Every structure is written in C-alpha cells, then in structure tokens.
Queue: 2 jobs
Job 1
Amino acid sequence: MTAENKPSRNEEEYFAKLEAERIARRSAEMARLNQDAERKSHHMRCPKCGGHLMTKDFSKLQIDQCPDCQGVWLDAGEMEAVMALEERGFMSKALGDFFGSLRGKKK
Ligand SMILES: [Zn+2]
C-alpha cells in the first residue's frame, strides 16, 4: 500500500464510527422487533395461566375472562363502571346472573 491510497487515520475513524452507528441502529431495531413479538404473544392471554381470554357481555360491560382459570380482566375505565353499577345496586344481581350463566355452560 502506497502512502497515497492508504486510508488516513481520520478516514478510519470515520468509517469505524459509521459502522458503530449501523450496529447500534440494527441492535435497536432488533430490540424493538423482539418487544413487538413479545407483546403480540401476550395479547388477549391470561396473565395468570396463559389461557386465551374470551370477551363476554357482563351487564352493560364487556369483560375479558380466562376459560381456564376463570380469571376476569377489566379494561381501562371498566372498574369505575363496575363501581357505578354497584352504587346503583345492580352489581349483586349482575354478578349472580354472570356466574349463574357460567355454571349453566359447564353442564
Ligand atoms: Zn387463566
């Protein structure tokens, strides 16, 4: 290699910096893809047992319930709606109807 075509120290540092930036972008992209895949694998899955949540009508709400462990999940704002129903005295009847319907389906 002659002195003319030998990369200068500045060029080497420049290309090393570009390579480091490319690797960092690729690493961030892989982390984002892994996070997306992880989130997708948990969508509508029971956080307790991993069962597939099913959306059911419950009084005036739609709730997500696990058919395996019977756990019930409320979306944002649904707890407040449940409490409002309770204050108006609808909750006990609705709960009774809901769990009664579950018992009926198991027969
Ligand atoms: Zn479950």
Job 2
Amino acid sequence: MTEISTIGVVGFGVMGAAIGMNAAMSGYRVVFKELNDELVKTMFDRWIVSPLNKRIEKGKMDQAQMDQVVSMISGTSHYEDLAECDLVIEAAVENMDLKVQIFDDLSKVCRKDTILASNTSTFLIEKVMTKATHPERTAGLHYFFPANVNRLVEVIRQKATNDDTYDALMGFAEKNRKTAITVKDFPGFAINPIFISSYMVLDSFYNGKQYNAATLEDISQKALGVRFGIMWVQNGSGLGTCYHAAVSMYDYLGHSEIGYPGVPSQLINQFEGGKPWDLTDGEVLQDEALRKAVADRLLGTIFAISTHLIENDVVSIKDLELGVCTSLAWPKGPFSLMNEMGMAEAARLVKTVVEAGDFKMPKKFSGDTPEAWAL
Ligand SMILES: NC(=O)c1ccc[n+]([C@@H]2O[C@H](COP(=O)([O-])OP(=O)(O)OC[C@H]3O[C@@H](n4cnc5c(N)ncnc54)[C@H](O)[C@@H]3O)[C@@H](O)[C@H]2O)c1
C-alpha cells in the first residue's frame, strides 16, 4: 500500500489549515499552498502560530511541542513545491472551475502515483477531477467543520478510484485519529444530504409566530435527542453556507428519482437578511399537536433520504449510522430511530413527506409495512 509521509494542502483557510494542523500533529510533514506569499504568512500566523501560542498560555502544550508541530509545516505559493507530496488535499474555495484548474496544475507537477483528493462539500469528485491525468489516484476526502475537532471523514471513491488509493486514504484517516466512512461519489456524499434536507424542512415551518425559531430549535432537540438542535447548527455553519448548500442539493436531486425539498422562502429571507436565526425570539410553543406536525415531517425527511442513500448504494447502513452519530452528534442514527419507533410508524412518517412532495417514495416503504432494519 502507498506509504504517505508528506502531504500537500491547497488553500489554507478554515478547513485546509485545520486539516494541515491535524496531520502535522499526527506526524505528517505538511506543505501548504496559498495564492501568494503574503497569504502564506498570514494564514500560517492565523491558523498555526496563534492557536498554538494560546495552547501554551493555557498550559495545554509546551514550547518544545509547539516547535515540533511548527517544524512539520511549511507554506508556499508555487505548485512546484508540492512535487514531493504523497497525497495532496485540495481545500480551496467552493468553485468548480477553480478546483478543476487546481487538479490540472497539480497533475503537471506531482508524481504519477501521488494521491489527489478534494475536500469539496458539494461537487461530484469525478467532475472536479476532469483534468487530473491519473483519475485512479483521485478521491474525495471530506472533513467536517471544525476539522481538527469533528472526528468524521468521508472517504469518497469515485468510479475510477483504485483500491490502493482507497486503502491509503483509509489508513491516513486512521493515523489522523479520525473515524472514516466509505461513501460513493454522490451529491453532498452521505451526511450532508440528511443534514441539509433536515434544516430545509424545519425552516419551511418558520412563521415568526407560533413556529418561531425558539420553538423549531426546541422541537428538533427533542425529536433527535440532541443538546444543540438544527436551528443552532445552521447558525454555526452560517446561513450563507446553508442557503447555497440547499440550492445545490435541490439542483442535483430535486428532479431525480430520489427527490429533494424545494429551497424554503424562509431560508432565502433569513440568508438575504444577513442575520442568524434568533433562538430567543419568543415563547416555545407547547401545543402537542402543532409540535408533532413539525417533528413528524422532520423525522420523515431523515428516514426518507437515509433510505434512498442505502437503496442507491451511496453508503452502508453501518457507516451511515456511525457517520451521523459522529459528525452531527445525534445519539441515535436514522435506522436505530426507525427500528425503535416501529416500522409502521416510520412508514407513516415517510408517507407524510412523500405526500408533501419532499421526496419520491423509497422502495422499502412502497408496499406493506417493511421489516425492521438489520443493524
Ligand atoms: N467551512 C466548512 O464548514 C466546510 C466543511 C467541509 C468542507 N468545506 C469545503 O472546504 C473547502 C474550503 O472551505 P473553507 O471554509 O476552508 O474556505 P476558506 O475561504 O476559509 O479557505 C479557502 C482558502 O483557499 C485559498 N485559495 C483560493 N484559491 C487558491 C489557489 N488557487 N491556490 C491556493 N489557495 C487558494 C484562499 O486564499 C483561502 O485561504 C471548500 O471546498 C468547502 O466547500 C468547508
């Protein structure tokens, strides 16, 4: 199996820097590339020197340990300096033309056995790699924000990805102390299709009155058994990111055999207003019937898209359960939730979202009450 010891990171922003820091702390040499020398210095100071100094101040690290990590990371503004890398992870801004160009440029300077991976959130890996000259050495490596804390990594095999590339990336994730799941090249991969449709459906109930943000946050907390609900997580991700991701997912899947909810006007308005959801915008609604209407649609959405992901061989049941619990911090994954609630009730909720036009009916739920999931 390919031995990885030096990695390149293209784009040293929020994600790239956290990926680089994580790798350096796990013993990898890291060479990052930024747009120009000024950004190389700014990003190194912002994402490496300053946070490590804070760790020293808090007594979580000593100077020798910091020097060790810093010595593992260097920056450049030239692709040629990535020539020696065994693996290059691209984490530049989410723009298709830019990413295609980056992999074209990397293909010209890297060895033919260098593994090229993208951290894109929304583009198909096959498309991003159109100009990579050795597609069998390409894959997706999708980290979750914040990438040095969130343990999940999706390893995305595109059609051309060979076994050695896949095995090397699984090994790399493990040495970085990450939980890796295997995912097919699919819009949004495995976790985001669930998370994004969840907030789209929840937001569609918002009316600033009985369904205020405080109520929707509370309903999502109770339905999923989480401390931080879906309105809170949207604020953390940024409403801009949430809006663009919703548009992208609808474009990919809205008219497919899977279906996807339309982008709700409430999310568009909130994004255009430039403010996060106000989670203290009034009383939390107590009316059980009105609360249940929302919780049913939320859970039905999660059940429908999760079932479609399995039926389309995007991910295994085991990996999807693990991935959702690891990345979103839900105590139970979608299939455990369905089994516990009972398949007759799960089928009722799926039917609700199919009738609302959010999804097409998954095969599993198209006949009589289906068997429980084999976990
Ligand atoms: N932020 C998240 O929550 C998140 C989560 C998962 C995946 N992603 C994906 O990770 C990627 C990066 O996102 P981010 O939030 O870190 O963005 P960011 O804007 O913080 O960082 C992007 C960096 O790329 C640099 N860059 C742009 N073009 C470049 C080039 N040609 N060469 C070298 N550097 C270049 C920019 O200067 C910038 O520093 C995107 O594809 C995004 O979709 C983001």
